[in-house]
Design a protein that fits this description.
Layout (H helix, E strand, L loop, with lengths): L17 H13 L12 H8 L1 H7 L7 H20 L13 H8 L1 H24 L5 H26 L27 H7 L9 H5 L20 H8 L1 H15 L13 H14 L20 H14 L4 H11 L4 H8 L3 H9 L15
The structure holds zinc ion.
Length: 369
């Protein structure tokens, strides 16, 4: 259904503008040392070099409308921003600037939101064209292509947002050290948690040094003023490889257009489990909850939810074999049939699913197409 060409980092979807597809490939193969923090390897300069020309040419088919579409998207984005943050945004920015300038001005997270508005503006134009007396079909195709290409750029924005500098400035204390998420789960790091609630300890306060910029409170190796290594940390540490594997699968699946399976685990049944799970949990960039909106306790950002899901799946010990069993049960097989297909005994199947927490018993959910 979906043809993907995996690059190390960014998926290129079918229907993407070929020039943009090339630009994204080049961008993702070069982006290793680039980051938002580096001066020498500024990610914005790489964007300017690689993506800006493709972004400009993306609208060539609708060149007479492009400024209008981008302006509309920009105005709606600004309104949305004000609703969410009460900030008016930088008056020097507008939607018709080069891609790299918008990225730098907004940050990658907001760039993603803006791109969603561009997508909607393009689709609205395309629908209007479709309703006209004499629809211009080539132009509608151009708009469809632009709309599909925008999804690739959204992924690029999200990947850039998540990208950490290759070499972390260890020992250097600043507000940007570490990422926002715990390395072992989807909770905020202790430091990021402090910053987000505004409890930033004084400049020379020792407290600041004691906050972990790598782990959340429950996964930090040692409690403050203690030499005892915490059990929770050791447990999460041991399952780190599994966590990262599930994280990758879930991340890929979250970019899949429904109903495609994109876990790319190398096993169709495992991929299917990841697909069903993401569908059931609404882990998708296309789910309404994943789009803009203020991230709060009820609606944490997609990245946090993907990370939390990966951690919880690993903690619940949902092995690949259990995933296969669950998928076969979802397909309506009974335990004996599932056992036969997987070459195991019915008792073994029964034992495997015995300990599975209810939240992972997708076969017991009422809806699963
Ligand atoms: Zn954690």
């Amino acid at each position: 259904m979906v043809d993907t060409q995996m690059t190390p980092h960014i998926t290129i979807w079918e229907g993407c503008d070929p020039q943009l597809a090339d630009a994204i490939s080049a961008f993702s193969s070069e982006w290793g040392p680039y980051s938002t923090l580096s001066r020498r390897h500024s990610i914005y300069s790489l964007l300017r070099e690689r993506i800006d020309p493709a972004w400009a040419s993306l609208f060539r088919g609708i060149h007479e409308w492009a400024p209008k579409v981008l302006d509309t998207a920009w105005v709606r984005y600004r309104l949305d921003l004000m609703m969410r943050t009460r900030l008016a945004g930088d008056p020097a920015l507008n939607g018709t600037l080069p891609f790299s300038a918008i990225a730098k001005g907004l940050g990658f997270k907001e760039l993603d939101v803006f791109l969603q508005f561009v997508g909607r503006a393009v689709q609205a134009k395309s629908k209007a064209e479709g309703r006209s007396k004499l629809p211009n079909l080539p132009r509608m195709r151009e708009m469809e292509r632009a709309s599909r290409s925008l999804d690739n750029l959204r992924e690029l924005a999200i990947r850039c947002h998540a990208k950490k500098p290759q070499r972390s400035a260890r020992g250097k204390l600043n507000a940007l050290r570490g990422g926002p998420y715990c390395e072992l789960c989807g909770e905020a790091t202790e430091l990021a948690g402090y910053i987000s609630v505004g409890h930033w300890p004084e400049e020379d306060d020792d407290d600041r040094l004691r906050l972990s910029s790598t782990y959340c409170r429950s996964h930090r190796p040692k409690a403050p003023f203690s030499n005892i290594v915490q059990a929770e940390y050791l447990r999460a540490r041991r399952s780190r490889a599994d966590f990262e594997q599930e994280l990758e699968r879930l991340e890929r699946q979250s970019y899949a257009r429904p109903p495609a399976a994109l876990g790319l685990s190398g096993d169709a049944l495992v991929d299917e489990f990841i697909r069903l799970l993401c569908q059931q949990r609404e882990i998708s960039i296309y789910a309404p909850r994943a789009s803009s909106g203020t991230p709060d306790r009820q609606h944490p950002p997609l990245e946090a939810r993907v990370r939390k899901e990966a951690r919880s799946m690993v903690d619940a010990k949902i092995s690949d074999q259990k995933k296969r069993i669950l998928v076969l049960l979802c397909k309506g097989m009974n335990q004996s049939e599932a056992a036969a297909q997987l070459g195991m005994s019915r008792q073994a199947v029964s034992k495997s699913i015995d300990g599975i927490p209810h939240t992972y018993r997708l076969d017991l959910c009422t809806v699963h197409p």
